[in-house]
Amino acid sequence: MKPINLKRLLIAILIPEVVGLLSSFVTGNMSNAYSVYTRPPLSPPGILFPIVWTILYALMGIASYIVYEEGRGEKAKEALTFYGLQLALNFIWPVIFFRFEAYWVAVVVILILLALVVITALKFKEISNAAFYLMIPYIIWLIFATYLNIGVAVLN
Asked: The whole model's pTM is what?
């Protein structure tokens, strides 16, 4: 196992964290919007979302670092391309959902996002099992977020 390149690891973690911050900045006051929705059962309190997303962004950043460090050639390039695509959709989804309140469009976007994240995780698995496993909490959360998105779309 290679020694950890702390600078590259921090950059890999910061990339998704900054994407999340920029998305929330563009989106506006998400927690206020969330509090006025009629929400489906099992909806967590709004304070939970930034905590969960901060953790998930860190995990996906670590996974991307592992793929970048351990991967070689086309496999790594393809895996990181899917990673970038899902990160772009991850940026767009809250803007569509919260800013534009286009809940059904957001359902389509989150389903595409979920598919891209699963593909990304499988591409990561071809390079590193650890990178794959680090993506699993993200997939689970996106499945739950899809449920919440559909619930808000139906109830509002």
From this structure: 0.95
DSSP three-state, residue 84: helix
Can you read off the two tokens belonging to residue 143?
């499945």
Answer whether residue 122 is part of any domain. Answer: yes
- pLDDT on residue 1: 62
Contacts of 74 (CB under 8 A, 6+ apart): none
Q: Does 1 map to a domain? A: no
Mean pLDDT, each 10-residue run in order, the chain (156 residues): 91 98 88 86 94 98 97 95 98 95 97 98 98 98 98 97
Measure the CA–CA gap between 54 and 20, rounded to whole angstroms.
8
**Three-class DSSP category at 81:** helix
Domain, as residue range, for 23: 6-33+45-155
Spatial distance between the Cα atoms of 116 and 83, rounded to a whole number of angstroms: 8
Distance CA 121, CA 138 (A): 10
